[in-house]
Amino acid sequence: MFDTLSDRLGSIFDKLRGQASLSEDDVSAAMREVRVALLEADVALPVARDFIKRVKDKAVGQEVLRSVTPGQMVIKIVSDELVETLGGSSEADIRAQALNLNAVPPIPILMVGLQGSGKTTTTAKIGLKLQKKEKKRVLMASLDTRRPAAQEQLRILGEQNEIKTLPIIEGQNPVDIAKRAMEAARLQGFDVVLLDTAGRLSIDGALMQEVADIEAATKPVETLLVVDALTGQDAVNVAENFKQRVKLTGVVMTRIDGDGRGGAALSMRAVTGCPIKLMGVGEKADALEDFHAERVANRILGMGDVVSLVEKASEVVDQKEAEKAAKKMLKGQFDLNDLADQLQQMRKIGGMSGMLSMLPGMGKMKKQLDGVDLDDKV
C-alpha cells in the first residue's frame, strides 16, 4: 500500500537523518523533493502546495529538542502534517473516521458510487464486519433495479457470508424497496440496514435525483461514497461531485492495497472535507479495514502499524490454541503439523510480506522478500 510514495519519502528522510545540522536551504531542498514525490503520487496540486507550506512554516525556526537531531525534527513535522492531511488525530477527527452507529435501530446506511467501484461487494464486506466485530444484526437490500442481476449478486454475497438480505420483488422501484427494507428491519429487529443503490458510468441528474429520493425516504445516518483508489484524482473528483448533490458523511476506498501512489487517499479529505472511513485491502469478504489517519501515515513513512497488526492477530489467532502450541514448543513436542498451523495463521494475518509492512523499519526487507515470492513458497 502506497509503496511508491513510501520509497520516495524514505530516501529523502534518509538524507535528512544523516545530517548533524540543517540550514533553511537544506529544508527547502528537502521540501522540493517531497513536493515532487507528492505530485508523482498523484496528490492534487493545491493539497501538495499547502502541505509543503505548512511543513516549511513549522520547520524553519523550530526550536530543536536536545534529544533529537534537526533532521528528525523535520521528519516529525512532516509526519504530523501527513496525519492532518489524511484526516487528523484529534478525538473529533477519530470519531469522524469511524462509522456512526449511535442511533436508534434500525440504522440506515446508504451506499452510493459509480459502476465498477466495488460498491455491492463493499456493502457485503461492511455487513460482515458489523456482524462479526460489532455484533449487530444486519439486513442488506439492493436498490439497483437497472444493472442485470445486481440484486441477485447481493443476495448471493449475503448467503456466502450469512448476512440477511431483503427478498427480491420484481418491478418495485428503488424508493419503495428502501421503504420496505426499513419496515422489515423494524418488524424483525435488525440493528443496521445497508442500502446498496444503483451506480452509473458517470454522474448524471437521474442518478442524483434517485439517491436524493432514497435519502428523503430513509433519512440515513451514514451516506458512504465508494470510490476506487486506483482511479487516482478521478476518485476525488467523483467525491466532490457527489458531495455537491448528496449529504455525504464519509468515503470508502476500495483496492487501496493495489494503490502504490496513494494520491487519492492523501487528497480526499483536504479537497472534499469528507473523512475516509474504511478501506478495502483485498478481495476476501473480511478484507476491509478501518481507516486510521495516524496509522496510515506511519505506514507511508515506514514506521509500521503495530496496533493494526495486533488487532489482526487477535482476530485470527485462537488464544487457547496459541498457548497449547507454546507449551508443546517448550516440551520439545512441536511437530510439522503445528508448524503448518502456525504458517496458516500467518497467511491469514497477511503473510510474511504483509506482516513486515506493519513492522517499523522493515520496508526494505519486505522489498527484498517480494522478489522471491516467499509467501507463495511458504
Keywords for this structure?
alpha/beta, Four Helix Bundle (Hemerythrin (Met), subunit A), Rossmann fold, eight-stranded mixed sheet, 56% helix
Can you describe this structure in just a few lines?
The protein has 378 residues and is an alpha/beta fold.
Protein described:
The protein has 378 residues and is of the alpha/beta class. Helix content is 56%, strand content 10%. The chain folds into 3 domains: 3-89, Up-down Bundle (Four Helix Bundle (Hemerythrin (Met), subunit A)); 93-292, Rossmann fold (3-Layer(aba) Sandwich); 306-377, no CATH class. The chain has helices spanning 3-17, 24-40, 45-59, 70-86, 91-97, 119-132, 150-160, 174-188, 205-218, 233-245, 263-272, 293-300, 306-316, 319-330, 336-349, 351-357, 363-370, 374-377, and strands at residues 107-113, 138-142, 164-165, 192-196, 222-228, 250-254, 276-280, 288-290. An 8-stranded mixed sheet has the order 3-2-4-1-5-6-7-8, with helices on both faces. α1 (3-17) runs antiparallel to α4 and α16 packs antiparallel against α17 (363-370). The chain starts with a helix and ends with a helix.
